[in-house]
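FIELD: query
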Amino acid sequence: MKDIEKKLKVGDFLVALLGLPHDKNSSFMRGAASAPKEIRRALFSDATTLMTESGVDLGREGAMGDLGDLSFRRREDIRETIEKIGGAVSAINERGKKPIFLGGDHFVTYPVIRALGKKIDALTIVHLDAHADIYDSYGGNIYSHASPFARIMEERLASRLITIGVRTMNDHQREQVKRFGVEVVRISEIGEAGGVSKLDRLDLGGRPVYVSFDMDVLDPAFAPGVSHHEPGGMTTRQAIDLIDSIDAEIVGADVVELNPRRDGSGITAAAAAKIVKEIAGVMIGE
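FIELD: result
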């Protein structure tokens, strides 16, 4: 944490990357804790550049800084983990920087929003995922990566939750969606061009937005390196167009659930890096 605070103190940049290599709350397969280094490898590879499609050069001075990874102990208590992540979020926020968190499983979104939501009024979460991740608990674990949005909404940490790309909801999740007033855009409602892909009918109302991007929202053909393959997902192109169409201030984001163990070719890490770039480009805006 001291290293992160030091980098924040001397760093003159707007977008701050922070790795959260944590996957203890994964329900099916571990491996997401190794994702931050693979996303960085793809992001800073000589095979590509740090230019976004909108023309923002993330490599220029003052654009983006890398804070490294937050460290977690093997047997760390879950409450300590939550407080540790929250402390890092607060430090970044107090320095006036916009964070992009590299997960990690989707559990990490809860402690991030727990810290961020208390500082930002009327926060809207745009959540892209094959799954609603709103179980009251999963496998007896209320902090499961399948439950972060239940914790977020029951604690009223966001005023609005928009979940896009879901294709696996069961009856319990439907009840949770109704209970918390979640706006769900199913994958079948996303056209190849226009419509929902431009967020036209969602009307973000100019309120601050946090983007939570689970890599399994993409079809496995584009992102095989995830723990939960769910065919019939978004194309990488659709996801990028959706991100680029957000017309409100993005105050923070996470890219989660990349599992390098299933990403032999590195194509999923490359897609994750691309998503990080495009989110950062919208954050900076020009």
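FIELD: remark
The mean pLDDT is 92.
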